Amino acid sequence: MQSLWTAEEAAQYQTDLALRVYTSQLLGREPSLVLHGGGNTSVKVREKNLLGEEEDILYVKGSGWDLATIQEAGFAPVRMPHLLKLAQLEQLSDPQMVNELKTQMTRATAPSPSVETILHAILPYKYVDHTHADAVITVTNTATGLERVREIYGDRVVIIPYVMPGFDLARDCAQRFQAQAGPQTIGMVLMNHGIFSFGQTAQESYERMIELVSWAEDYITQQGGTLAPVTQDVPETALAPDLAAFRGQLSQGAGFPVILSTTRTAKTLHFAQREDLGSISQQGPATPDHVIRTKRLPLVGRDIAAYTAAYEGYFRAHASAELKMLDPIPRVVLDPEWGLCTVGKTIKEATIVGDIYDHTMDIIAAATQLGGYQALPAKDIFAVEYWDLEQAKLRKGGNPPPFTGEVAWVTGAASGIGKACVESLLKRGAAVVGLDLNPAIESLWERPDFCGVTCDVTNLDQVMQALETGVRRFGGMDMLVLNAGIFPGGCAIANLSDSEWRKVLSINLDANLALMREAHPYLKLAPQGGRVVVIGSKNVPAPGPGAAAYSASKAALNQLMRVAALEWGKDKIRLNSVHPNGVFDTQIWTEEVLANRAQHYGLTVEAYKTNNILGVEVTSHSVAELVAEMCGDLFAKTTAAQIPIDGGNERVI
């Protein structure tokens, strides 16, 4: 591991706290040190309060901040004298500790201080860094971990046997540090938890961390624990139907919809196909902090019922009477065909689980080469999993958006109504798969809850590949918005060619039939019932001259929706249509087409845009909002409905 400190960058940070931000971000850049909110850092400063009095203040990382992106606002300022007094107490409950920390902050708007704040305070150094370094945890999570740590570090670190984070750990560290530390001490190893470094400058503390972790890395290499790159072939195979069915079972077991994200790479397949997987994967997480994300154990294979039964037994064995069991489904699934699957209420949660377990696989494999991976006993992991201070981190989000855990698919998603539908569905918490002929769809929204797939919906092979891609990413399909279509320029029937007729019906009707047919098995598995919304047209109830192919294709698609509603009701799938009129901020309405239609009705372009009873312009956004609502609870008992969104059209009325 190399130091990322540069004098040029550091020169931009003038204060002690600013330098604390800089080196915290350096730590956060290295995933093998910290992941997703893991680790914490601090700096001790003297500063004047409002009364002009100088105070000793500990700035410690606040809860909910990631080291990689932390700013000064992410550090909680806490009065040092009070922290040192708290460390002298014989006992302090978690609620009392949280209260004491919050009441001693000097900035009311600061985030809650880390649960390890008192531990940072008792270490007699200006700067303190704490990480969950993979290399250190690899060594500590072996049967002879204590001896190995001593062999690596000698007296340069103080070694702390595992104690649950919080006041007890801080008090134990204070006592052991005072008894064992000397001039040669540059760090502290917490068995099965992580490592601390410290120094009088930000650079010293940071570079000591790099040095300490590098020694552990070198030791692993010397002991034959270096992993060779996995280069096995990854055979192509269709997984989508099985993954979607599995996601349905998970959602049923959880009691809410979940995202199932699949990572099928040479590395994950190699690990999931290990002969000793049933042993090495069932020891526990690399560090207890991970349990609130990953659960204690992964599911090996696909027997969800057996996993939930085992989890219920684990809960009964360790729970006190007042505890309520969390959902019993796994967050990590290891399967020899699928590789690694991760589960979450959102794709963000599932991705965090995936990142953590990606590193856990490396730790387990390396520790196995050092004689055997060994995690903490189940009772210690349970204590953290059901520790209220950790659970509070997961409860901070408040009420989730209505489509949390659900997956929506939108065709023609790169522009116009389709693009607006994506935005409305994302806003309501859905993960969205967007299909479009335009390759720009793949980078249109660079966010984890969107998967853009280049797809010609008239090409069944591309549709099937898109289904495979989207289901591997998010796990299934709950909502389908059929939006892709074309609107050719005005053409009288007398002049309508066979090729133009077939082209319009191929895209507007045939492609949607195929997609509905292929989507049906996935919609049947939707935990809260499948929903389909067809983007129809005012031309269905009130066709206009010069649009025969378009009007006929949309009318036929509307009739297809009605028949599907009759056939699919037993599968708890509801289908409805919206009939917009004149949505002019779409690619269909080119300037040429718009001028042509306006001229046909003897209107100016502006008058044509608002040519309805209410005198309003219908936009993509207004259509999309209606579409999203039709997928929600408001329309939960409605199927085969046709709803105009046209500002009021006399011919429709």
From TrEMBL:
Full protein name: Bifunctional aldolase/short-chain dehydrogenase
Keyword check for Oxidoreductase: yes
Family classification: Belongs to the short-chain dehydrogenases/reductases (SDR) family.
Species lineage: Bacteria, Bacillati, Cyanobacteriota, Cyanophyceae, Spirulinales
PROSITE patterns: ADH_SHORT
Keyword Oxidoreductase attributed: yes
Domain Class II aldolase/adducin N-terminal: 19-220
Membrane-spanning residues: none
The entry's keywords: Oxidoreductase
Organism whose genome encodes this protein: Spirulina subsalsa FACHB-351
